[in-house]
Design brief:
single chain; alpha+beta; OB fold (Dihydrolipoamide Acetyltransferase, E2P); Dihydrolipoamide Transferase; Chloramphenicol Acetyltransferase; 3 domains; 6-stranded mixed beta sheet; 5-stranded antiparallel beta sheet
Length: 446
């Protein structure tokens, strides 16, 4: 019996998927559980896995093309089985409902999806058990998209094969005038990544493009790039947040001198006690949220949900975007635990090895651009969350203390507030508590 392979709904918000790469050709033998293709959802790159056995008789979707959820994209059948009726009905679109990710289905569904291997492994998951039954988890913050774009393929000088490279690697190569066709990739599947370009620049072994060609390609005044699924999601989430949500902003400047002293003292005790300024801020925010559950909330349209647990999302920069891993029950964890967990989550986020449940389910989020030298900025709220905190750079500033001029370490934070839930006085009280904790950091150590 023929097995239909359809574009499945791999996340609660997915409406269409883009086929990144076929891993099986027409005529190839297919076994149950084998990977057929890589698909980019609105969240991640996922593997489409066969649920039937036989021969891949027909591929109905080209690489880099998108298809709505439920559309037939391939047929697996016996070599001599007539599939004309299935193929002729392929243009009917998303008539058949698609099974959700991880759900079991019969042969009519045709394929299932699992996270990719070490290179790109990110999808969509439900919230922690305590929240799962009540509502679906929030989508990644609009201003902080949570999933990476699909790795693109470019022509290669290696026998007409395909060369894969990360967006960051392509940008660095363009800035340095390097020809990626002569760069050897060390990433998964030979993918060219940042360190490969850095090595090529350092060695000077890669031929350079002419400057004129780099600045203005011959015969081209511009270049159009099709939207990836993640960019479509970013655009949609931006319009869902910054437009409909009545947002106001509260900015405060904190004295970080005692934080610096405590951090230095902890580092002197050994590597296991080392923490970053960001770790301390995360701990302080989580503790303040536990004291102000009115801020640790979701706007659900006809009701407001106040959470008794603090699941703190932290923005991490990856190639061409951001993803927001979640530190669950952050208020209950020691600073050293938050430090270890945040480092591990950030590392795996940049390597695209996060599990879906590790970046969904946040109740409040923090975005830190201080390491980029940004003094102050405003972040966009991730609906249905009702607030997000933007952290600026740590700076030495002259201040007046007891009538005398002194130099102190200072840091600015800006809280974006959903006015439907968080009023000005409530947001101000939350920042007052946060100030007290940060300027007296021993209160965070227990």
């Amino acid at each position: 019996m023929a097995t239909k392979v359809v574009m499945e709904a791999l996340s609660p918000t997915m409406e269409e998927g883009r086929l990144v790469k076929w891993l099986k050709n027409e005529g190839d033998q297919v076994k149950n559980g084998e990977t057929l293709a890589e698909v980019e959802t609105d969240k991640a790159i996922m593997e489409l896995v066969a649920r039937g056995e036989g021969v891949l008789r027909k591929r109905l979707l080209n690489e880099n093309d998108a298809a709505p959820v439920g559309q037939l994209i391939a047929v697996i059948a016996a070599p001599d089985e007539n599939i004309d009726a299935l193929v002729s009905g392929a243009g009917d679109g998303a008539a058949a409902p698609a099974a959700p990710a991880g759900a079991s289905a019969g042969a009519s569904a045709g394929a299932t999806s699992v996270p990719r291997g070490p290179a790109q492994s990110q999808g969509e998951a439900s919230a922690p058990p305590q929240e799962k039954a009540a509502s679906a988890p929030p989508a990644p913050p609009a201003g902080r998209p949570a999933a990476p774009p699909a790795p693109s393929a470019a022509p290669s000088g290696n026998g007409g094969g395909r060369m894969r490279s990360s967006p960051l690697a392509r940008r660095m190569a363009s800035e340095n005038g390097l020809d990626l066709q002569a760069v050897q990739g060390s990433g998964p599947g030979g993918r060219i990544i940042k360190r490969d370009v850095e090595a090529a620049v350092a060695s000077g072994a890669v031929r350079q493009q002419p400057v004129a060609a780099r600045l203005v390609p011959a015969g081209e005044d511009f270049r159009d790039a099709p939207l990836t699924q993640i960019r479509k999601t970013i655009a949609r989430r931006l319009s869902e947040s910054i437009g409909p949500i009545p947002t106001f902003y509260l900015t405060a400047e904190f004295d970080m001198e005692r934080v610096a002293e405590m951090r230095g003292a902890m580092a002197a005790m050994g590597d296991e006690f080392k923490v970053s300024f960001n770790d301390i801020v995360l701990k302080a925010v989580a503790t303040a949220l536990a004291q102000h559950p009115e801020v640790n909330a979701h706007w659900l349209g006809d009701k407001i949900r106040y959470f008794n647990r603090v699941h703190l999302g932290m923005a991490v920069a990856i190639d061409d975007g951001l993803i927001t891993p979640v530190i669950f029950d952050a208020d209950q964890k020691r600073m050293s635990e938050i430090s270890r967990e945040s480092r591990e989550l950030a590392k795996r986020a940049r390597e695209r090895k996060l599990k879906p449940e590790e970046y969904t389910g946040s109740t409040f989020s923090v975005s830190n651009l201080g390491m980029f030298g940004i003094d102050q900025f405003t972040a966009i709220i991730n609906p249905p969350e009702v607030g997000i905190l933007a952290i600026g750079a740590l700076e030495e500033k002259p201040v007046v203390i007891d009538g005398a001029l002194a130099t102190r370490k200072r840091m600015r934070v800006t809280m974006s507030c959903d006015h439907r839930v968080v009023d000005g006085a409530l947001g101000a009280r939350f920042l007052q508590t946060l100030r007290r904790l940060i300027e007296n950091p021993l209160m965070l150590v227990y």
